[in-house]
Amino acid sequence: MDSDFEIYWSNESIDNLESIFEYLSTNWSQKEVNNFKRKLAKQLDLIVSNPKLFPVSEYNPRLRKAVLSKQTTIFYELSGQRIYLVYLFNNKKDIDSVREAR
User: Fold this and answer.
1) Which of 18, 28, 38, 64 would bridge with 32, disulfide CB 3.0–4.6 Å?
2) Number of domains present in the structure of the chain
3) Are 101 and 60 in contact (CB under 8 A)?
4) Which domain holds residue 57?
5) Measured over all CA atoms, what is the biggest interatomic distance in the chain, rounded to whole angstroms?
6) Is position 1 within any domain?
7) Regions of the chain short of the pLDDT cut 50
8) Is residue 71 part of a domain?
9) pLDDT of residue 93
10) 3-class SS string, the chain
């Protein structure tokens, strides 16, 4: 799908993604890893096609939050035509890191 928006990954979000892949690869099957990748790709497509689709975060109003799964939420910032992925957040962690996002 054509879009005027472009996604940029923060170092933090890349680290989060690597951590998720490591966990899935260690504890789950390749099928689950592939399912996660497909789900993530679909969610990112939704974000790019309609960046305001997902609600503003109550923890940090600068960010929007897109729930990917029961375990993972994507926090991103919209700035002009750029979408900055700030976190792929493990929902079991302390939410204070989202409040303090720069």
Assistant:
1) 28
2) 1
3) yes
4) 6-99
5) 39
6) no
7) none
8) yes
9) 61
10) CCCCCEEEECHHHHHHHHHHHHHHHHHCCHHHHHHHHHHHHHHHHHHHHCCCCCCECCCCCCCEEEECCCCEEEEEEEECCEEEEEEEEECCCCCHHHHCCC
Could you tell me the two tokens for 41?
């790709």
| Amino acid letter, 69 | S
* Cβ within 8 Å of residue 101, ≥6 positions away: 60, 62, 63, 75, 86, 87
In Å, how far from its chain's centre is CA 48? 12
Residue 13 domain flag: yes
d(Cα 43, Cα 77) in Å, to the nearest integer?
15
Structure tokens at 74: 């994507």
Please answer whether residues 87 and 101 qualify as being in contact, where contact means their C-beta atoms are separated by less than 8 angstroms.
yes
**What's 12's domain CATH number?**
3.30.2310.20
